[in-house]
Amino acid sequence: MRMLHGVVWFGFAALAGAQTFSGAVYPILRAKCQGCHQAGEIGPMAFTTYRDTRPWAKAIREAVLSRSMPPWHAEAGTGERFQNERTLTEGEIHTIAAWVDAGAPEGPATEYPPPLKSETGWRLGKPDLVVRVPSYRVAAKGEIPYTFLILPTRFTQDHWIRAAEFRIDKRAVVHHMNAFVRPPGSSYLEGLPRDQFVVPTLAQRRIGRPQEGVFERRELLIGYEPGYRPIPWREGQAKLIRAGSDIVLEMHFTANGHEQTDDSELGLYFAREAPRERVLSTQTQDMGIRIPPGAPAFSSTAEITFGKPVTLISLQPHMHLRGKAMRITAQFPDGHDETLLNVPHYSFNWQTTYFLKDPKRLPAGTTIRSVAVFDNSPNNPFNPDPAKTVTWGDQSWDEMHIGFMEIAFDARQDAEAIIDPAAKTRERRRFEETVRTSAR
Ligand code: HEC
């Protein structure tokens, strides 16, 4: 017994001795935490020096043991592996916990390598083109409707974009920002003035032309949301901005008690040559949701079928405050099903995009299906009003069910042929039905 105690005690002491801030912990914080926990980023405190980190040692231990930090909501071991996965390894968790248990010592203070940050403030380096959003004054209080800005690119030839990055100025009040490409001739926000902030009505936002292709109307270039990290598409992949296109920014600001002026920017990086594969953003969505009051697990299903072979690049579940869980699966033409992503405990605060480690080939005829579960019961601590029937809408007290995804396909292929026409017709019918019901 004595012997055993001795071994355990010595073993633990030796281990604890090695767990110092400078020796073992700082490298983990630098790699896994400082992306958010440094000045100017979204983490509420910086873990860039021993002094700043030490008071948080106990909270850090809690956060890593409970796996609430780093934030990551995909169920481990189910579905695909993800390139931007930011979870800690068992070893890293152990190292941090042992350091805190040993009294959080600094160890031999050496020169600490500075946080990873780019000189220009752009994570992907200096963009080829910077689109500046004119200063927007966000009031201290009140509901701010989705605000739009139509900016002409003045491109006289087609441009392939290999990456794009949002540099958000006032993260505390920018709930999200989406940049769409509006090709010439599109019906999207038709007739609204360019170069100024506009707040179109829902009807104006839904204007479409019969027979107009989905991507002839608009195409999502990139989106910013909490937890955002820009990731370029792969070698040989790019998005297309046709000559004469406009960039339409959809902005959702939220008041946080302090009046602020936001000066965000969008950076574009041009591909030097035409890519092998064109990248497109598309989605599954159920605009017809109608969640009864008090329902603890209301489920909604949406799907999209590809008419051509595509490669799946990324997935992003999107719901609002009643969002509880989402599972995204692929059903292959031979009928078999595979889970791609399971988010069993969805958090509205973290609109994570999951980039597949190995982009997945999907043969023509594959259906991607998203099943969203909503909790409209009083047991949901984020529920703004369990007594309400909840339908589709912009604000966080309304709901959405969207499974955003990015796909790549042969760049010579017509984008409109990528989505199976039968699936498109079903989607259009559903959309029209929703517009009719919401107009009543
Ligand atoms: C993607 C951004 C991001 C990353 C990466 C991240 N954090 Fe956080 N962290 C936040 C944000 C935002 C908050 C405040 C809101 C919240 O608690 O969700 C926070 C809060 C915390 C808190 C305080 C929460 C509490 O328990 O009171 C701790 C401690 C923490 N993070 C530790 C860490 C550690 C340790 C790592 C790395 C192993 C890490 N975080 C990685 C964004 C991040």
Would you kindly provide a written description of the structure presented here, covering whatever features stand out?
By secondary structure, the protein is an alpha+beta fold. It has three domains: 2-101, no CATH class; 118-274, Jelly Rolls, CATH 2.60.120; 276-440, Jelly Rolls, CATH 2.60.120. The protein contains eight helices and 21 strands. The strands form five sheets. An eight-stranded mixed beta sheet has the order 1-11-4-8-12-21-15-18, with no helix packed on it. It has a five-stranded antiparallel beta sheet with strand order 6-3-9-5-7. The N and C termini lie far apart (78 Å). Mean pLDDT is 90; it is low at 1-17. The chain binds heme C.
Give a brief outline of the structure.
The chain is α+β, with helices and mostly antiparallel strands and 440 residues long. The chain has helices spanning 2-18, 21-32, 50-53, 57-65, 90-101, 202-205, 214-217, 421-439; strands at residues 129-132, 136-138, 147-152, 159-167, 174-182, 197-198, 219-224, 237-241, 246-253, 260-262, 265-270, 277-285, 290-291, 298-305, 310-318, 323-331, 337-343, 354-362, 367-374, 390-391, 402-410. The strands form five sheets. The protein has an eight-stranded mixed beta sheet, with no helix packed on it. It has a five-stranded antiparallel beta sheet with strand order 6-3-9-5-7. It has a four-stranded antiparallel beta sheet with strand order 14-19-16-17.
